[in-house]
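Let us practice reading a record.
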Amino acid sequence: MADDLFEGLPPPSSDTLISQHPRHEEPIIVPTSNTESYAVPVPPPKPILKSALKRPNPTQPDTQATAPKKSLKFKTTTDASQAQVIEAMKKITSHIKNPAKFSKAAKLAIQLIQAGSVKSEVSDYFFAILEAAMSSSITCTDPSVRADYHSLFTIAQDAKEHLNKKQKNQLETWTISAVVANDLYTDDSFVFSKASGQIKEAISNLPVATEEEDAEEARSLIDSTVTADEGSQTHDTDKDNGGEEADPFGLDALIPRSAKKGEKLKEKNEVAVKIRKEDEEETKRFLKSQRVALITCLEIAARRYKTPWCQTVIDILVKHAFDNVARFTTGQRDAVGKLWASIWEQQTRRKQGKSVNGKLDVNAFEWLQQKYASEKISIRHSVGASGDRRAQQWLG
């Protein structure tokens, strides 16, 4: 049967004939017999047809496969030079005093802090921004700028490490006025209680006021006049000394070196005494400003006594200040005493139901205290009339 298939074909020129189909890269060899073989062309497999929807468009390149992937990045730092940062801080300082521009200037200052632009080299310019903000014609507790002051001096704590000791003390005082005092206006009981706790802690950290501080407070009304007189006298003295020559006769070369060393040692001691005196003056100034800020906070808290959920916290706060009244100066002690007398009077009126609105104005603790004051407590049973011990003992 195989011989009939290849009948009429010319005989092969070798043992094996190779034929390559034009559509194949490699031939297919088919053996015919023991001595002869022929190459038989085999058609290639038909290509698998793809859907027209899945077939890529040959006229448009595949941009998704060749284009690099893009990632969204946010710029968190500024590449501004030190000169540019200083120039920006000067502009903010000039505008932040204006109440109409305070909000925008405060936001720009916050951006500088968050960008890490506040460093030791420019700390004086940054402190000038805070100083200008606190010297504004509008107070930091004004409702129109209250939130901006709170944000500025809260975030300013991140740049505190770049300030010197004097600037850190001043920032701490400003934080009490701009952050803690503004927290007392909140409608959040947790924030109000936290601010009250910070005020109590600051009062406890104050040293006992000295007689010198009381006397200094009494002389505070004439301090400005005395300072002006001292300034004029110092100016005249410097003028007189400036007209004299340091060594008119050239005798410095004849003075022994040991005497010069003694003068240098004396000057060194005078510098050390001056530095120590400046530190003492800075401590006094810091304590004075901190006491004033805390008194302001107590007054703000006392004005919120009509809010029912604030009353217990205010009672504890003002009572704590009254118990530590020795840490304030004479005039401040009088102010704390008046605050406590006012709070005590309102507390008594609440317990008697003599509030302004005619209702029994007591808080939850006082209501429970009155309710269970006449109840009896049994050792084996719950609170009730069957007990033989009064609840007043554990409710105070």
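A brief commentary: The longest helix spans residues 257-303.
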